[in-house]
Design a protein that fits this description.
- This protein is α+β, with helices and mostly antiparallel strands.
- The protein has 2 domains: 273 residues, Lysozyme, CATH 1.10.530.10; 57 residues, no CATH class.
- The chain is 42% helix and 11% strand.
- Strand 1 and strand 2 form a beta hairpin.
- Helix 4 runs parallel beside helix 14 and helix 5 packs across helix 7.
- The protein starts with 22 loop residues before the first strand and ends with a helix.
Length: 434
C-alpha cells in the first residue's frame, strides 16, 4: 500500500502532574523498514520530571458531619487557619448549598457498560463534526500558533474543545461551590473536593474567575475546556493577552489546553494512535502490553498507513473491540489525552474527532456491532468468579477496567479462547451469569 510517509520528530518533553518520567529521543542512525513502519534507531536521554506544585487542603482526619452546615463551618475554620483569605472563603461557602443530585451522579453507575463504538459514534456525530469544521476554520490561525508554541496538534486541542463543551456552547450550569461542597460533605472524595474549593478561592482572589462566573459541571469542571480549579491554577495561561487567565475565554481555554497537554508529556509530531494489522499467527497474549515500536514490528504488527516511528518509542497494542475489531498501536500521546478523562474510549473519541474535523479518514476496520455488553450485575459476577478462580480483578465493582480485562484475558488464554480481553455476552457468558 503506497501512502504518504509521515516522519515523526521527537523533542524532549517535560512531565508534570499525573505522568511518569519519559524519554526524549534524538535521531542518530539510519531508519530500518519493517512492513509499512520505518523504524529509526535512536539514543535515549533521561529527562527528569518537573517537581509537582500541589495545592493541598488543610491536613485533617476525615470527620463525619451531622449536616451540610456543620461541614461548611468546619471546613471554613480549617481553611482560614491554614492561611486562606477569610473573606473569600466565607463568601464562597455562603453561596454553597447541598445538592443531592451531585452526590447521586457521583455514586451512580450505568445499568450497562457502553461498547466502544457507541462512545465513538457520539464523539464523531454529524453535528459535532460539522460544527467542529466551522470552529476549526475560524480558529485555524490561533490553533496553528498554539501548535508551534506548545507542540500539541491543533486538531487535538480543537477536539477536546468539542468534547468538553461543544466548542464553548455548553459549559455547565451547576453552582461550583455547591457541587464541590456537596462532594466534600458526602465524603467519598472529600480531599479532592476541598482542594478544588481552595483552588477556586485562589482563582477568585487572583481575578481569573469572577463571582458571577461560578457555574460549571456537577463534577467541578469550568469553562470552555472544563478544567477543574486546581488544574487551571497550575496550567491556565493568558492566551488572549488581557492580563487574566479566564477558563471561559476561548483564547485562554485553548492555550491552556495546549499548555496542559504539553506539560503532561506530549511528544511533538506523534499521532495518538496508528491503525494496524496483525499476522494470522499473532500471539494475542501480548495485547495490552507496551513494547517498543521495533519490537511490535518484529512481531509482525504493521501499520495500515506508511509511517516512520522511532525504534525506542513505547507503544501499546489495543484491541478496543477484540480480535474482530480495529487494531490500534497507541503512542504515549494517547495516554496524555487521558489526563482530561482517564478513559481509553474518551481518548479514542478525541483522536477520531480531531481527524474528522480536519478532513482525515477514520478507522478502516469496521466494528463488530453484533456484540453486546454485560450488565453491571453481570460484570460483578464475572469479577467475583474470575477472582475465585485465581484471576484477580482487584475488586468487584461492576466496572470493566484494566484489571478486569487483564484477568479475563488470562482466563481466556487458559480456557481455549483467543486472549484479546474483550468482554461481551458471547465471550464471558459462562462467567457472568449465576
Amino acid at each position: 500500500m503506497m501512502l504518504k510517509k509521515q516522519y515523526i520528530a521527537f523533542f524532549p518533553a517535560l512531565v508534570m502532574v499525573g505522568c511518569t518520567s519519559q524519554q526524549a529521543m534524538q535521531e542518530s542512525n539510519k531508519p530500518v523498514r519493517q512492513g509499512n513502519v520505518e523504524i529509526t534507531q535512536t539514543q535515549t536521554i533521561q529527562v527528569k520530571p518537573t517537581p509537582k506544585p500541589v495545592v493541598t487542603p488543610p491536613p485533617v482526619a476525615k470527620p463525619s458531619y451531622n449536616s451540610f452546615y456543620d461541614w461548611k463551618s468546619d471546613f471554613s475554620m480549617r481553611a482560614i487557619a491554614s492561611g486562606n483569605d477569610a473573606a473569600t472563603v466565607r463568601r464562597l461557602l455562603d453561596s454553597a448549598y447541598l445538592n443531592q443530585q451531585v452526590i447521586s451522579l457521583d455514586s451512580g453507575q450505568p445499568e450497562f457498560s457502553k461498547m466502544p463504538w457507541e462512545y465513538v459514534d457520539s464523539a464523531v456525530s454529524d453535528g459535532r463534526v460539522s460544527t467542529g469544521k466551522r470552529k476549526f476554520s475560524e480558529q485555524r490561525a490561533y490553533l496553528s500558533q498554539l501548535e508551534s508554541q506548545y507542540g500539541v496538534s491543533a486538531e487535538t486541542v480543537a477536539a477536546i474543545w468539542g468534547m468538553e463543551s461543544s466548542y464553548g456552547v455548553v459549559t455547565g450550569n451547576s453552582s461550583l461551590p455547591s457541587s464541590l461542597g456537596s462532594l466534600a460533605y458526602d465524603g467519598r472524595r472529600q480531599e479532592f473536593a476541598e482542594t478544588q474549593l481552595l483552588s477556586l478561592a485562589t482563582l477568585l482572589q487572583r481575578g481569573d474567575v469572577s463571582w458571577s462566573q461560578l457555574e460549571g459541571s456537577w463534577a467541578g469542571g469550568m469553562g470552555q475546556t472544563q478544567f477543574i480549579p486546581a488544574t487551571w491554577l497550575k496550567h491556565g495561561v493568558d492566551g488572549d493577552g488581557d492580563g487574566h487567565r479566564n477558563p471561559w475565554a476561548t483564547g485562554d481555554a485553548l492555550a491552556s489546553t495546549a499548555n496542559y497537554l504539553s506539560n503532561s508529556g506530549w511528544v511533538r509530531g506523534l499521532a495518538p494512535f496508528y491503525e494496524a494489522t496483525v499476522p494470522t499467527s499473532f500471539d494475542y497474549s501480548t495485547v495490552g502490553s507496551k513494547q517498543s515500536a521495533a519490537r511490535w514490528a518484529a512481531m509482525g504488527v504493521d501499520t495500515i498507513a506508511d509511517v516512520s516511528l522511532d525504534a525506542n518509542t513505547e507503544m501499546e497494542l489495543w484491541l478496543p473491540a477484540g480480535k474482530d475489531g480495529p487494531v490500534l498501536l497507541l503512542s504515549p500521546n494517547f495516554d496524555v489525552i487521558k489526563v482530561y478523562n482517564n478513559s481509553s474510549s474518551y481518548a479514542l473519541g478525541v483522536s477520531l474527532l480531531g481527524k474528522a474535523i480536519t478532513g482525515q479518514g477514520g478507522l478502516q476496520k469496521s466494528w463488530p456491532r453484533y456484540e453486546r455488553p454485560l450488565s453491571t450485575t453481570q460484570v460483578r459476577n464475572l469479577q467475583q468468579r474470575l477472582t475465585s478462580a485465581g484471576y484477580d480483578t482487584k475488586g468487584a465493582d461492576g466496572i470493566v477496567g484494566t484489571n478486569t480485562r487483564t484477568a479475563f484475558q488470562r482466563w481466556q488464554g487458559d480456557n481455549g479462547q483467543t486472549p484479546d480481553g474483550f468482554i461481551t455476552q458471547r465471550s464471558a457468558s459462562s462467567l457472568a451469569s449465576w
